[in-house]
Design goal:
The protein has 665 residues and is α/β, with parallel strands linked by helices. Helices cover 34% and strands 12% of the residues. The strands form 5 sheets. Strands 7-12-13-14-15-16-17-18 form an 8-stranded parallel beta barrel. Strands 2-1-3-5-4-6 form a 6-stranded mixed sheet, covered by helices on one side. The structure holds 4-O-methyl-beta-D-glucopyranuronic acid.
Length: 665
């Protein structure tokens, strides 16, 4: 254990995540000059003071200045040409540091980049940094009032909300400020402060409780973060002012225009509205025979004059299906609904699309809606909260999954990556709560960190991001680094291996809130049918030739690749095809043997993860280690349950024994 790692045994009331004070130690006593004006630049000054630096006008150790001033300071050689507002150039020579920034947020990002640089032991050099996307957003599914089924934070696995408690905004928001700082350090610049399922209490954030929004926005603002609000489409009706919320009705339009004007009068940099409409029971334009473009544009027009955005979610499907009806395929829904509307959305509408056609499963193909909407600003939506990936009981590092999604090339190897075509940027659902470690499982902090870093630069290697996160969070200890890397590197694939196989989805327990196995849990439900297993085979036929036609929603080469058993990737075969258990995969194994092998291997991998964690005792703070130990015990129990239920289910269905005779029940 080296000196800059947190002392073992120290008890933490609130974990510092990746910004412990120790990481700023090298800056103590050094001199700094921060040039430029504004709230965010002032934040950088305050950061430097907090790190124990002294302000010095001439020859400071660290000079942070607007790129436009670089030449006048004799720094004309720095590569600052056309630097975007959030970009910066970081230059280190013989211990002297220059950060030349494009705009205020760039100053803040340059500052935190330097902290990262120090943590990684970086040396001299000049690097230029700019985010690929302007919109890097984090969405909170926090409720103000505790929801009877969903609790304070919907799909939250880290205790209550850091914003709200018992039906109100918290009095003490000091923790939100620490959160804003953490988010700024990874480049997040937009936050939605309430759940997309907007209840009666939450709808009032837009009207008589606007003061709560104003208070939160004031905390986020100095950190370069703009505040967004989820709104309820039926608000003009349900808040009691009008008898309709028809988007084409002038009184409704005026209601929203007035509401928006009131927001901007108090929050001039307000980001805009996030809307879940006509989805899972939320109200929307369908009630009036209008479509999603009518609805989104009506809100967009209320915000346009103020520079606000509407993030309109594409998560629209029929959740009242009859499982007997084999023609309905939930995977098709978003494309069928939105592709015909391409070109009809106003410029300040961002269509926010989940990464896959279903719902944040551990494995899904990339949504065909994203590349299809060429005349619409589309944002990619990811889920940092681990609803379907172990609920922060299981250690699952999602960086590799996101990286694979971002690097997907919807029009083939010569075309652009998905990351390049999402002009509306990236959004994700937060995994943070009032828990002492913020995220329940301490290792789940890595997911929030990775999300911010990938939203900034989608081609960063997930392993490199992990190294950054480990160095910042735990300091330089090579054994700890290797231990944590060995646990997290493949943890997403490990989780996949002991849960639903080969791209089949939703084998989770509906009764236990999507945690743990229930092979048939959704098979006869109104929410869609997902595996169609019988004695001969398994999978959903989504081919054009004989199935639901979903494969045809892709552009080439993917439409043909997914259509044919010869070319569909193994990991998605059951998403696209119904095949016999004896079908041979490209790997050479049969489907049934693949199911057995991966489930046995997955649990063995978890055992290794547990052993690797145990070996870190004494190298990590005791409370971090103890919390992890509890979680790893649960992960092993749960993975074993998954293995045995899945293997037993398919052995009983198929009657085909495991080739190597392992125990199946
Ligand atoms: O993943 C599902 C969740 C719902 C959620 C919904 C959505 C906020 O189970 O809890 O609702 O998606 O994304 O709107």
């Amino acid at each position: 254990m080296t000196s800059d790692a947190p002392a073992p045994g120290r008890s933490l009331r609130e974990h510092a995540m990746w910004l412990p004070d120790d990481r700023f130690a090298a800056l103590r006593g050094r001199t700094v000059s921060v040039l430029g004006e504004g709230t965010v630049v002032d934040t950088v000054r305050a950061e430097a003071a907090r790190a124990g630096m002294t302000a010095a006008a001439s020859t400071p150790d660290i000079l942070i200045l607007p790129a436009g001033d670089a030449a006048a300071q004799g720094l004309g050689d720095l590569p600052t040409a056309d630097l975007s507002a959030e970009g910066f150039v970081h230059h280190v020579r013989e211990g002297r540091v220059v950060v030349a920034y494009g705009g205020p947020n760039g100053a803040l990002y340059g500052w935190f980049h330097h902290v990262r640089h120090l943590a990684l032991g970086g040396g001299d050099g000049t690097t230029r940094h700019e985010p690929l996307h302007e919109l890097r957003m984090l969405d909170h599914w926090d409720n103000v009032a505790v929801h009877p089924h969903m609790g304070q934070v919907e799909r939250g696995y880290a205790d209550g909300s850091i914003f709200y408690q018992e039906g109100m905004l918290r009095d003490d928001l000091a923790r939100v400020e620490r959160y804003a700082r953490l988010l700024a350090s990874i480049g997040i610049n937009r936050v939605t402060i309430n759940n997309v399922n907007v209840g009666r209490r939450e709808a009032r954030l837009l009207t008589d409780d606007l003061g709560s929004v104003e208070r939160l926005a004031a905390i986020f603002r100095p950190w370069g973060i703009r505040t967004h609000l989820s709104v309820n489409f039926a608000s003009p009706l349900t808040l009691g002012d009008l008898d309709t919320s028809d988007p084409l009705e002038p009184t409704v339009q005026r209601w929203w225009t007035d509401a928006a004007a009131r927001v901007y009068a108090r929050i001039p940099d307000f980001g805009g509205f996030l809307v879940k409409a006509d989805s899972e029971g939320q109200p929307g334009p369908y009630a009036y025979g209008r479509d999603h473009a009518d609805g989104a544009n009506m809100l967009a027009r209320a915000l346009a004059a103020h520079g606000g955005l509407v993030h309109w979610r594409a998560f629209v499907y029929n959740h009242r299906q009859d499982w007997r009806d084999r023609t309905t395929d939930r995977a098709r829904a978003a494309y069928d609904t939105f592709a015909p509307l391409d070109g009809r959305f106003d410029d300040n509408v961002v269509l926010q699309v989940k990464f896959g056609p279903l719902d944040f499963q551990v494995r899904e193909p990339v949504s065909p809606v994203i590349p299809a909407m060429t005349r619409t600003r589309v944002a990619l939506e990811l889920q940092v909260t681990q609803e379907y990936t172990g609920q922060q009981q299981h250690a699952v590092y999602l960086g590799p999954q996101w990286s694979e999604i971002l690097a997907f090339r919807p029009t083939g190897d010569d075309g652009p990556m998905l990351a390049e075509i999402v002009a509306g940027g990236i959004a994700a659902v937060s995994n943070v709560g009032a828990d002492a470690f913020w995220t329940g499982h301490p290792l789940a902090q890595a997911n929030l960190y990775a999300y911010g870093r990938l939203a900034w630069d989608p081609v960063l290697e997930p392993g490199t991001i992990l190294d950054e996160w480990i160095a910042l969070t735990f300091g330089h200890d090579e054994t700890a680094r290797r231990g944590i890397r060995s646990i997290l590197d493949d943890s997403w694939r490990t989780y996949e291996s002991y849960t639903a196989p080969l791209g089949v989805c939703f084998m989770v327990s509906p009764l236990n809130r999507h945690y743990g196995p229930d092979v048939d849990g959704y098979e006869y439900s109104a929410w869609g049918t997902y595996h169609f297993a019988d004695r001969d085979g398994i999978g959903v036929d989504r081919s054009v030739a004989t199935g639901t036609g979903y494969a045809g929603q892709y552009a080439e080469p993917w439409a043909s690749r997914y259509e044919s058993l010869d070319t569909v990737p193994d990991e998605l075969i059951l998403f696209f095809h119904h095949v016999p258990y004896t079908h041979r995969l490209h790997s050479g194994r049969t489907v049934i043997q693949h199911i057995y092998d991966t489930h046995f291997a997955g649990v063995e991998r978890v055992r290794e993860m547990v052993a690797a964690w145990d070996a870190l005792e004494g190298r990590l703070p005791d409370d971090v280690h103890a919390r992890g130990r509890e979680r790893f015990a649960e992960q092993l129990r749960s993975a074993t349950e998954w293995r045995d239920q899945i293997n037993t289910y398919f052995w009983r269905k198929s009657g085909i024994a495991d080739e190597t005779g392992r125990t199946i029940f």
